[in-house]
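ingest -> validate -> predict -> emit
validate: passed (alphabet ok, no gaps, 277 aa)
predict: started
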Amino acid sequence: MSTILQVEGLSVAYRGATTPAVHDVSFQLSQERLGIVGESGSGKSTVGRALLKLLPNADITAQRMQFQDIDLMAASEKRMLDIRGKRISMILQDPKFSLNPIRRVGDQVAEAWLAHNRAPRAEARRRTLQMLTSVSIRDVERVYDLYPHEVSGGMGQRIMIAMMLLTDPQMVIADEPTSALDVTVRMQVLSILDGLVRERGIGLIVISHDLNLVRNFCDRVLIMYAGRVVETVKASELDQARHPYTRGLLAAQPRIGGPRKPLPVLQRRPEWSEEAP
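emit:
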């Protein structure tokens, strides 16, 4: 498989903060499903936004941040405007905060196409209706004209996915794409994303705190703690992870049918935030 993204030594420091939010993170992405997991504040979402240079209040440094033929570190803001949404898309975790409440959802999806293509609005509408159908939304003509408050959380998330996939990107960053969904809708959303990887050959980064999700859905997993990658494992071998932080996360999961005892509290160690993976 060809490499889509290669990251070496990525660090992100928010201005005014005493410590970096992300420190010396390295990984590569091919035509696969790569999970990034860790507790809240571990730096997962910061990595995703740094790849798109969407952190205006932070300093981003890296030895290398190469997306296909593009050096993202050297890319100007004008160049990034062409890349964002067209070649790299990011699915945000909560449509309630990501969709404009005073615009119809169909117009918002169509805008993603029009931002990168000179075409009549009728063509954008046609493509939008096709994409809404492809993410398992029924009665798309009716849904097109709805406002965000008129759709359910699951439908809103699928609308966000349609918006991000309409431009046929080569890489998708999905930040907690199923966190607010019920089990049935979650499986539908994951099936859509899985089909994109298999049929279109895209690279998919799934940012999540759900170990069960990445274990069953992803190909590889990066485990982050305090802004660092402490371990990288095959998703199928997550239960055999060796780092004590990963072992602590696994032990803290409630299990159906497991012993009815208090879950262990993860005992963090200062050296975890200083050691290299």
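The mean pLDDT is 89.
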